[in-house]
Every structure is written in structure tokens, then in C-alpha cells.
């Protein structure tokens, strides 16, 4: 490998300022466009830190993705969901194959290799097809064309050795990126971090919150009821919109951990409750079903639109206020407030394997400050004697335990209302010594990482 990758272009198309134009007018091999979209999206996630979800939207996603057939879109989704989850392994394998690592500037080449390796190692795609297309992709890209033979050699070797190599790398290398593994070990220790890493490799099940009678819906849909009341569909692999009860609005998709914070407010029947940072409304829906008069505050108009359409399906109503929480001035304070603050979302890595590649320490630190300020604003909306639940789906102490600790130190009129283990049978392992909830992707056979604390405003 030479080290001037990316600086020198010997590709004829580059001379005409059309660096990405195919070298020849050959027709694309079947499946080429799908792999090209996968490489483009992988590059946007890793290089530009663009979240995956938006790019994989059927209608408004990345243009290279939206134009694909249904079948090709499914393939691209599978490649990215699996590839991002296993990226540290894939990088480690190629590093072990090369005398020296791919040069820093060889990002496009790296993504071509990762996309092909994902298919060879984890997907039901014939190896030769993954290899041929990757070689063709390298040939057509002026920055990678001179590495086409190397791509061919690396991927063919991977195909031959895949079983042994996968066994070896899975024992030696964590699937978590190093920066994040270090943070987790510092907080949770090696054992829990290893369990989180294992959970990261698995696809998350579908969890549903039902309006009532979870056992009936678990029986109807072939699921189980978790101790927290969530209905879990472990084996379901299809469109949830086709499931019984969806059109009738009797349940909504919500991770088991995400369903905990709203329940921490206890008996809220007939009370005035504000759900701050509310969209897309999963927790608002719970509060309404629990019998509260709910005001949902949300700054994003587009997310409010989505929340309203969710409530239409569920036949639920709430007062919805499009405002920044910091500027919201209700006529009178609330009996209870739920603040599900924006966060780094590192607890959701099973469902969003891109998070650990798009977020970093700076984001966590910035979001921790945002959360603290939101908590200050939210607390001002609670009446004396009232309660506030602060929650988010980060695994990071800085965005959870430490926000609450700092807030309680600065606010003598606030006190922690400890959550009692006996009130949450089955979830005892997630209740901390201070009486806060801390779940991880390894809790209760797998749920999102969540933090929640109950704070009371003194009389
Ligand atoms: C983690 S999501 C909330 C999820 C929601 N609680 C649920 O269960 O469906 C955070 C939400 O907070 C909103 N948000 C962020 N900053 C805000 C602010 N300053 N005021 C109001 N809403 C805000 C975001 O637009 C986003 O919809």
C-alpha cells in the first residue's frame, strides 16, 4: 500500500473534473446500485456523522437509497445495521491482513471493504457477488481504482477464512468502539460492559405498550409480558403495521425501558401533568392512558406532526404546545412533570448501531449541560409538593446520575424521592442504591439503556 492515497488520481475521468463518473459505459452488475448506496450511507455515517434513520427513510431518505427497489432497500438496511454493529471486528480483520493499516485518507476504500465484508461474514449473499461488486466499485472510484486487485485479494481471503477469522476476532476484539468501551468500563466495570457489548450485537425485539390487558395482547400476538408490563415480541420480523391491534390503536411500539419513566409518576389520575420534550409521544400516550390531563410541550413542529398522527391512531388527546421548554409559561404550575430530555441516545445502540459512530465525548458533555438547564426550567413548572421525573436514554453517568446530583446540590428546595425495589418486582437489578433507575441493553434480557430519577419539590 502506498501512503499517498487520495492525493493522486490516475483515473481518466478525474481529469475532466468528474471524479465519481464511471470509467466505462458498462451496464451496472445486478445489485451494484444497492451496494453503492450502502457505501455512500456508510460514508455519511462514519465521515459526516449523519444519523442512519433519516437516510434510510423510504420517501425522504438518502436519494441513492430512496430510488432502490423494496428488495434492494431491505438489503441496504441489513448491510448497514449489521456492518455498523461489527465495524470494529471488520477493521481488525483487515488490519490483520495488511502489513500496515489502510491510510487515513482511504475512507472510501474502507467503506467498500466494510460493505463487502458485512455481506461475506454476516449476510446470506453469495461471496462472489459481494467480491465482484466491491472490486467494480473500487475500479470505478478514482481514489480506489489502483487498489482494485487488493480489494479482490482481501475479500477472497476473507471468504476462504471467514469461519476461523470470525471466531478469532469475536474472542479478541470488542464490538464497541474503543472510546466508548473505555467510558463504559469506567462506569459499569468490565463484566457489565461485556454484557452490553454482547447485547449490542443482537437485534432488539419489538416491545409494545398496551392501553390495557397486556396478557391478552401477549397471547394474541404471540409475545410475553415483562415484569414491567411491556409486551415483548421476541420472534416477530415483519411490519408492525400489519399486526392485530395496530389499526385499532390499542398499543404502540415503545422499548420496555422507555416505558418506565411515565410509570414512576405513580397515581396521576385527574392530575395536571406536563410532558416536556414530548415527541413522538410514547410517554405522553402513557400519561393520558394513566388518566392524567396532559400538556405536551415540544419544540419541533415536524415532530409534533408525527405525535399528532400517533395520537389520532391511538384515539388519545392532549393539549399540545409547540414551544421551547425554556420559554414556556403555563397559566399555573403542574402537579407533576415528566422531562425526557434530549441525549446522546447511547442506550439505544441495539436499535441504532450508528450512534456510537456519530456521537462522541463532546456531544455527551454538551448534552449534559443542555439537560441540566432543561431540568432547571422544568422544575420551575412544578407546584410545591409536586413531582418531576427526569429521564433519558443515555448510558452515560454524565447525562444521568451526575445531572441529578448537581441539580440537587444547587437546589435546596428539591429532594430525591427514592424509587423502592419492592414497587418494581423483577426490575430490582436496575434500581440503584440512591433509588434511581439505571437500565442497560443487558438488563432483563435486553432493553434500552435508560436513566430515571424522581425529584420532589418541597412544600
Ligand atoms: C428524547 S426525545 C423525547 C421522546 C419522547 N419523550 C417520547 O417518549 O416519545 C427529545 C425531544 O425533545 C425535544 N426537545 C429538545 N429540546 C427541547 C426544548 N428545549 N424544548 C422542547 N422540546 C425540546 C426534541 O425535539 C425531541 O422531540
From TrEMBL:
InterPro entries: MeTrfase_RsmB-F_NOP2_cat, MeTrfase_RsmB-F_NOP2_dom, NusB-like_sf, NusB_RsmB_TIM44, RCMT, SAM-dependent_MTases_sf. Residues 1-30 are annotated as: Disordered. Residues 8-21 have a biased composition (Basic residues). One of its GO terms (biological process) is regulation of DNA-templated transcription. S-adenosyl-L-methionine binds at residues 277-283, 298, 340. Keywords: Methyltransferase, RNA-binding, S-adenosyl-L-methionine, Transferase. One of its GO terms (molecular function) is RNA binding. The active site is at 393 (nucleophile). Residues 168-458 form the SAM-dependent MTase RsmB/NOP-type domain. Signal peptide: none annotated. It comes from the Bacteria. Pfam families: Methyltr_RsmB-F, NusB. Transmembrane segments: none annotated. Belongs to the class I-like SAM-binding methyltransferase superfamily. RsmB/NOP family. This is MFS transporter.
